[in-house]
Amino acid sequence: MKIKKVKLYKTVYIPEELPQTPYKEVAFVGRSNVGKSSLLNTLVNNYKIAKVSSEPGKTRSVNFYLINDKFFMVDLPGYGFAKVPFKEQKRWRDLIEKYLKERDTLKGVFLLVDSKVGPTEKDKQMKDWLDFFGIPYVVVATKVDKLKSSEKQKLKRKVEEGLKDKDLEIIPFSSKTREGRVEVLKRIERLLEA
């Protein structure tokens, strides 16, 4: 898949603003500071499209990026960041849940897990939630450039054990080295065709 055109189509803060369009969607979800914005920028070859911040919890909306005028990549707010007030965390959670539960156009989710930290309890909850609602998903282990080669060899097992699932599809990814970019784009293509 070649990405030739990308634009921010809509930014949504409340469920009622979610757009109704004929376009298929793939969504990206993960805890705050997992590298979601960096991954999106790497996929579309545009390092300014999704705002990257050193401060976790900056994505507070659902952002719809229209790709090649054909489908959406949807950036969901990060979860699990303690410094955000509880009321704001609840608003994000409600927005994410409403999005994931009710989007007929959603073809799959990329669940991002920090390869250095490993899956958190919140990542496990998100995985269980996706399983419960039957939403197809792929696990992307981000920041693999920070791993030693011995850690990289154990990555698949670490993620499987953390998410308590031996049958996961896991793509190692680095926005620095661009490892995994082609694999994620191929997987997006397959999800959209399914």
Description:
The protein is α/β, with parallel strands linked by helices. It contains 6 helices and 7 strands. The chain has a 7-stranded mixed β-sheet with strand order 1-3-4-2-5-6-7, with helices on both faces. The longest helix is centred in the middle third of the chain and has 17 residues. It is globular. The protein starts with 5 loop residues before the first strand and ends with a helix. About 3% of the residues have low confidence.
* Average pLDDT figure: 89
Structural class: alpha/beta
Distance between the termini: 15 Å
Largest sheet properties: 7 strands, mixed
* Counted beta strands: 7
Described by its quaternary structure, the protein is: single chain
Q: What integer value in Å does the Rg equal?
A: 16 Å
Topology:
Blueprint: E1 6-12, E2 24-30, H1 36-44, E3 62-67, E4 71-75, H2 86-102, E5 106-114, H3 121-132, E6 137-142, H4 149-153, H5 155-163, E7 170-172, H6 181-193
Parallel strand pairs: 2-4, 2-5, 5-6, 6-7
Antiparallel strand pairs: 1-3, 3-4
Question: Quick summary of this structure?
Answer:
This protein is α/β, with parallel strands linked by helices.
Give the key terms:
194 residues, alpha/beta, seven-stranded mixed beta sheet, 6 helices
